[in-house]
Amino acid sequence: MTLLRIRFTGLAYLVLGLTAQAIEKPNIIVIMADDMGYGDVSCYGATSLQTPNIDRLASEGQRFTSGYCSASTCTPTRFSFLTGTYAFRQKGTGIASPTSPAIIPAGTETIASLLSQSGYKTAVIGKWHLGLGGKSGPDWNHDLKPGPLEIGFNYSFLLPTTNDRVPQVYVKNHRVLNLDPQDPLWVGRKKPSPDHPTGRTHRNTLKMDWSHGHNATIHNGISRIGFYTGGHAARFRDEDLADEWVRQSVKWIEANRANPFFLFFSSHDLHVPRMPHERFQGKTSLGFRGDSIIQLDWCVGELLNTLDRLDLVEKTLVIFCSDNGPVLDDGYKDDAIEKIGTHTPAGPFSGGKYSVLEGGTRTPFITRWKGRIKPGVSDEMVCTIDLAASLAALTGTKLSKDACLDSFNVLEALLGKKGAKGRDHLVQQDNGQGNNYGLRVGDWKLQRHDSKKARNVKLRLVGTSVPQYQLFNLAEDPGEKHDVLEFNPEVAERLKAQLNKLIAAGRSRT
Q1: Which of 274, 316, 369, 464 is the most buried if burial means most Cβ atoms within 10 Å?
Q2: 352 pLDDT exceeds 60?
Q3: Would you list the domain boundaries of the chain?
């Protein structure tokens, strides 16, 4: 065999190997926590409680120290995760109301539709909070469409809004589960009758008191945002949510194990009202918020145990993340503040949910694919918004030019490849088309507060007066305590221009 032929044969084998690798299609499970901070799990430094199952993921995969979501509230982060586009680019992506229509239009290219194109079975199980139905909003007694099934999911089992907002029912695919036609469900913004019980009129009957805002319709001894009547046979008990998500997920995985599958496991545990199952209540010193973290860790363990039992561990990429950072008092008196002790939910960072400080969007972020991802810790910057482009690359699915406008392919970083780079910049937002942004580029972080107010700076929902612009060096000051704009005017001007350009351009993926 000549040297040329040897080289050609070797090249052919290399090309075949790369092709085989490119079309490899592992199962994919994205576990998205709700309101979980960087410091809320033990593998990220928590000492007031232990999270052995999340820690197991980290010890068997890549734990990212610069893992982000794109917004510090749930609806915009979930929008961006699914669509690969910053939520501030579309109107109506703030925290969705109970009567919100579908925020992601039918036919939009999403992470689910991309994976469906590659032959995946796709499901979302858990919290949705992205609206349902057409322009007039949800028709609770008939088909709830458009919804997840119109943007690429084959199956959905949902908490339709978020549990501090009505109604407390499950939605399976297009219908409210177990709804009795003789007891129709009504949801609205105004009190349906003068004698309708609310958290204000019947406060003495509540098993969890409200601190602000959450004082309308009462269900299961807890008052909520918004009003609803009827649908009694369809209503769930708060304490049973996590068990139901796990039961439905295990059932779906078992049914789809023969195909490559994508499961978006969308938890609610840490979000208010925090009402963990009785078997978790009192298991930590941190009150129901800490107990809810333990419950979420149990959920993670049940999913991992299912993969073990079905011999799917080496065939499944598991990604753990959160939709935003932590908050303590978010409308209910559940002792989250009183029992915080020495626990630091945001870890070394300032701020949390509702803020553009690091604590609002820098959260736990872990990837595990046994046999493919070597255990380790990565400082590369990755974001939930990048999962669409990265998983499309993994599965050999082509992104159309006008989809996933801000999603970058950081697959090699997610897989822990040596020398792989994450994204080089990230725009952070607070909520919807809010007036506050953050821009991280390398170690520099620019805060832009057009409202000149920063919320939840110390995990308290209090507005703090701030200058419109502040600049921080995260390498020296991860807690964003020392504004150095005055000493670095050129850096500040460069980042201001970059942020303005990113917002105005309508996209950041070229």
Answers
A1: 274
A2: yes
A3: 25-414, 425-505
